[in-house]
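sorry for the late reply, my laptop died twice this morning and i had to redo everyting from scratch. anyway the thing you sent over, i finally got around to it. pasting the sequence first so we're on the same page, its 117 residues, then the predicted structure underneath. double check i copied it right bc i was rushing
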Amino acid sequence: QVQLVESGGGLVQPGGSLRLSCTVAGWTLASYAIGWFRQAPGKERERVSCEGSDGNTRYADSVKGRFTSSRDNAKNTAYLQMNSLKPEDTAVYFCAPSCRSSWPGSWGQGTQVSVSS
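ok and here's the structure:
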């Protein structure tokens, strides 16, 4: 059974940084793409980044140049480094072994990121 646990969120001032972690169990991270997603109140889930198993990564235009996706396959953990955070980055962030926001598996609880002064 696929299990996903996101962590690392918090409250940060504009311009600050956070690093999110996505720990997976029940499958081998190295064999899959990793998608990072976020969902703000009243909005649909949107994809932030998509990292293929080959390491090639695409980012949403809104985060390009500020966010970096990475993975440690030995630890079965993926990361999202978020720099120069903006208030509009406020959302619950999720990871998935897919780049599709419609992934039908069991999503984790996500981790809350709040950017405010």
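Residues 69 and 80 are 5 Å apart (CA to CA).
thats about all i looked at so far, will dig more tmrw
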